[in-house]
Automatic annotation (TrEMBL):
<dbReference type="InterPro" id="IPR025997">
    <property type="entry name" value="SBP_2_dom"/>
</dbReference>
<dbReference type="InterPro" id="IPR028082">
    <property type="entry name" value="Peripla_BP_I"/>
</dbReference>
<keyword id="KW-0732">Signal</keyword>
<feature type="domain" description="Periplasmic binding protein">
    <location>
        <begin position="29"/>
        <end position="286"/>
    </location>
</feature>
<dbReference type="InterPro" id="IPR013459">
    <property type="entry name" value="RhaS"/>
</dbReference>
<dbReference type="Pfam" id="PF13407">
    <property type="entry name" value="Peripla_BP_4"/>
</dbReference>
<protein>
    <submittedName>
        <fullName>Rhamnose ABC transporter substrate-binding protein</fullName>
    </submittedName>
</protein>
<feature type="signal peptide">
    <location>
        <begin position="1"/>
        <end position="21"/>
    </location>
</feature>
<comment type="similarity">
    <text>Belongs to the bacterial solute-binding protein 2 family.</text>
</comment>
<dbReference type="InterPro" id="IPR050555">
    <property type="entry name" value="Bact_Solute-Bind_Prot2"/>
</dbReference>
Length: 331
């Protein structure tokens, strides 16, 4: 074999070894949540780990701030950029504030998607909604209206005032009120920042400010538990119904004691699972996120991106006395 041929063979072998080595190391995908210590996100992480096990080449980095603020999330994301992760899947505390740091991540070759609570389009490649925004908005009002045949005053206890998902759901809820629920009067919207203590104080404030309040609607798993506990502690079961979006495992006792008639949610395990699948396929398979594209979310199915590169996973599911026992053992 000539020297030139030997050189070419050696170079080809070295290149092949380099490629194999590059893919031998697992893909690092960061699942960035609004705040740690939140049961909803802990459940999502279970799904993320399930997806990682199925895919076989993924290491999930489950992380987030201790307080649900955009500033704290920016610090977390900067750290992930420094670690040179392959992908970031973030549930955002602020749709716009995270854009600059996420653009920096994408410029460094990191795949960026948002899930649950979205980032503005320029700050991510795609967004996975847990469900259809308008359907969630209508559902949270219907959960209250179904148990108020004569109508009445209701109030919303949300997460933070900048939370993309909650704000969108609340606006959708307001739109359906006049036509579909004319007897329901929304008297106030307050914010508990997904903090149990603050949500408790806000719920107490609503009951004090609106003595004729018939229902508190909390589209946040932290707020809905806090509000139900306040109604229980203040002896208002049967007078004020608490509803919204809740984890069955955390909320079962309030369905059982009558502080709530029904709540809804999607499966957070499926949501975390789907987020990892999407991030993986964009980072590894180089799937293109563009309007009209249909992408796999593993065992959950497929999603098709709309004009904003967003997609919805599944419709919300209602939990009441007939089924919450079963689902409380799952998530």
């Amino acid at each position: 074999m000539s020297f030139l041929k030997k050189l070419l063979v050696t170079a080809a072998f070295s290149a092949a070894m380099f490629v194999n080595a590059a893919y031998a190391e697992n893909v690092k995908i960061a699942l960035v949540v609004k705040s740690l210590g939140n049961g909803f996100f802990d459940a999502a992480n279970k799904g993320a780990e399930e997806a990682a096990k199925e895919l076989g080449d993924v290491d999930v980095i489950y992380t987030g701030p201790t307080k649900a603020t955009a500033e704290a999330q920016i610090e977390v994301i900067n750290s992930l950029i420094a670690q040179k992760v392959n992908a970031i899947a973030v549930s955002a505390n602020d749709a716009d504030a995270l854009v600059p740091v996420l653009k920096k991540a994408m410029e460094r070759g990191i795949t960026v998607i948002s899930w649950d609570s979205g980032v503005a389009k320029e700050g991510r490649q795609l967004h996975l909604n847990p469900s259809d925004t308008n359907l969630i908005g209508e559902t949270i009002i219907k959960l209250a209206a179904d148990y108020l045949p004569e109508g009445g005053d209701v109030a919303i206890l949300s997460a933070s005032s900048t939370a993309t998902n909650q704000n969108a759901w609340i606006e959708a809820a307001k739109k359906v009120l006049p036509e579909k629920f004319p007897k329901i009067k929304l008297v106030a919207t307050v914010y508990g920042d997904d903090d149990s203590a603050k949500s408790t104080d806000e719920a107490k404030g609503l009951l004090k400010s609106y003595p004729n309040l018939k229902a508190i609607i909390a589209p946040t798993t932290v707020g809905v538990v806090a509000a139900a506990q306040v109604v229980t502690d203040e002896g208002l079961i049967g007078k004020v119904n608490v509803t919204g979006l809740a984890l069955p495992s955390e909320f079962k006792k309030f369905i059982d004691n009558g502080a709530s008639q029904a709540v809804a949610l999607w499966n957070p395990i499926d949501l975390g699972y789907s987020a990892i699948y999407l991030a993986h396929d964009l980072a590894v398979k180089k799937e293109e996120a563009k309007p009209g594209a249909t992408l796999s979310i593993g065992r959950v199915g497929k999603v098709t991106l709309d004009d904003t590169n967003s997609a919805a996973m599944a419709p919300p599911f209602q939990f009441d006395k007939t089924n919450i026992e079963k689902f409380s053992k799952i998530y």
